[in-house]
Structure of Alpha-1,4 glucan phosphorylase:
Amino acid sequence: LGMDFGQRKAKAEKMFGLMDVFLKNDSVSLQKDILDHVEYTVARSRFSFDDFEAYQALSHSIRDRLIERWHDTHLYVKKQDPKRVYFLSLEFLMGRSMTNSVINLGIRDQYADALNQLGFEFEVLAEQEGDAALGNGGLARLSACLMDSLATLDYPAWGYGLRYQYGLFRQIILDGFQLEQPDYWLNFGNPWEIERVHVSYSVKFYGTVEEEDLDGERTKVWIPGETVEAVAYDNPIPGYGTRSALNLRLWAAKPSDKYDMESYNTGDYINAIMNRQKAETISNVLYPDDRSYQGKELRLKQQYFFVSASLQDIIRRFKDNHQNFDELPDKVALQINDTHPALAIVELMRMLLDEEHLDWNRAFEITCKIFSFTTHTVEPGGLEKVPVDLLGHLLPRHLQIIYEINYKFMEELKKIIGQDYDRLSRMSIIEEGAVKNVRVANLSIVCSHTVNGVSKVHLQLLKERVFKDFCELWPQKFHYKTNGVTQRRWVVVSNPNLCSLISKWLGTESWIRNVDLLGGLRQYATDPDLQREWKMAKKVNKLRLAEYIETLSGVKVSLDAMFDVQVKRIHEYKRQLLNILGVIHRFDCIKNMSASDKGKVVPRVCIIGGKAAPGYDIAKKIIKLCHAVADKINNDADVGDLLKLVFIPDYNVSVAELVIPGSDLSQHISTAGHEASGTGSMKFLMNGCLLLATADGSTVEIMEEVGAENMFIFGAKLDEIPALREKGASLKAPLQFARVVRMVRDGYFGFEDYFKSLCDTLEEEKDFYLLGYDFTSYLEAQAAADRAFVDQEKWTQMSILSTAGAGKFSSDRTIEEYAKHTWGIEPCKCPF
Ligand code: C3B
């Protein structure tokens, strides 16, 4: 601005002189800060504000501290210019931010104290926050856990995603039926994000591709038909025990003010504005079906919108310091979370070819060195496909590039495998047929240097089933990184009782950054003092959960009962139905028991929670069945406290934080070969809950760590499933199974017409998920759990050993593996 070096230096010195080095965190400074935010940010009088306003002021005060670290991290990383990983995901299930932030910043106690002085309680204010639910289930929560670990381990990383106006729907239960309500989570503002009006990019759609002469060469030029602006919203992600704070950048769609002078000149002013407003619909709503989005134009628009904005941002950052694109793979690793962001591959190709004018081979080589792809899918049929016509209409230039990639790939492939047309057509990126489709997974595999599964068995399934042809072609490309969860959120934030107990017995808090230390608990597993304290911590958590259940459902539950929990998305393969049928069986047994036998029954509180995709009929019937059965059981005087069944509505991250620590037993009972990993099990394990599980996904590895003798494992094994399915109708379901299904069919719980189609799925020839076959061993595992629970000493020992064996399942370990083996990045720790 016309200043010379000396003037600029003097100005900088003055600015720094005006600032404290860092914000102060003593109680008085925090109180003053909070009150200032009440007065100047929330604009309430500091003499009169309610809990919600206190929460708003408090969160702004915390946010100031986040921003401080976030700036420092950015400046430092920018200067160092290391290779960075960019984690692209269409879903992030962050949950609440407040408690997590103060814990990771290391200032929770200071805030609690400051608030006390002001007459508030931290926990009460924390309850004011709503969940950021920009995701469906496991895949989305995994993204959130990985961000926490990236920040904690000081990796130079960015998250990129979409800022949906409506997060995952709220589940309301009316007469036992699920209803969906919109989650307009931004209604009361969102203090955890920073709107970046100046960080915005134009994203283009539709139009045509034309050929033009450029320096004597024919080049393709895309003439787009629609332009939408992507505006950045930044969400700081603080690491624990470090000053690093990363950025999760989420894009929101806004109307563009470019290119539409014409519509303004037509005189139809109101319509012109209405049309522009439509642009915002792109980031309006998260698709609530977590497995299939096939053929939806809006979904494709969302994918491209987020990918295009992110890549423009990433390439701009690269170009700040570099001119030569050959250096791109040394500076940029792009991770695509499932196939949803796979258009990033094509977009990068387009940018390198059409905007940077690299030749095809160089562009392709660079692209393939940058991308890595993690798949979360187990079903070949569940892989994403996009109709060619749809893609060609929305992104004509991208379709050309996809065809070109495929043509070259097919030519190469023919050289290797010859004229095996079946195999060629299976591996082609384009699926031929009545409707031509782009197979997004094939595109992702062809253009990534590494493809990861999410557990050891998952890799096996990729090799045998999902990507068999590709694994045979490029065995060295396929790997797995077992998923993990962050112990910060899932123990420190959600289970403070257990957290302090662990730290006390290990004599250190270091396990919060180095979770392998949990193994140190093994030596105390039978220590009566630890056992007593351990049981007490569980009791307090059960009390909290029992109160929650009573408020929600009016059902009073006994703390002496075993709390048996299954919380996750409702899917047939996850077999909530098996659980409910097991509950019916238990109920039936109790009803038919003599009084003296009843005295031997281990009381149970069975808890089920989870959302069904709005269009998933069978899943919705499972929810209704759960309520119908609960109605019967919970009001039966013969049963009393021996058995209760409760459905927890609107399961989300913050509900999980309450439910998981309060559980004794948790169920992970998918038919073997259907759960790619499963991460809920890891959260329960860390919290000392025993697992009743099939040998599927990550439970196989959990067994290796804690020992099958400390779990209740049942069910058909992975390698038995194909033969069992083959047998079909000749597999006679056990009598007990037939009996409980008949009870449902015959209307014992009412709604017999409504449940008919659900019961039909259990007929022997249709029982794809093998509920009938697994029922007997399921009941045996349940009986074993009962026997173990009676011996409280033994049970507590198993519980301690579960936590002690949870070390491997920290997302810190997952991230270290990705960093080393997939992304090739090193930590970049800010020295102050
Ligand atoms: C899930 C899988 O179902 C889980 O087994 C796995 O633990 C997580 O991803 C994380 O890897 N998943 C999901 O939530 N949504 C999908 N569309 C596919 C898989």
Observations:
- The domain at 545-808 is CATH 3.40.50.2000 (Rossmann fold).
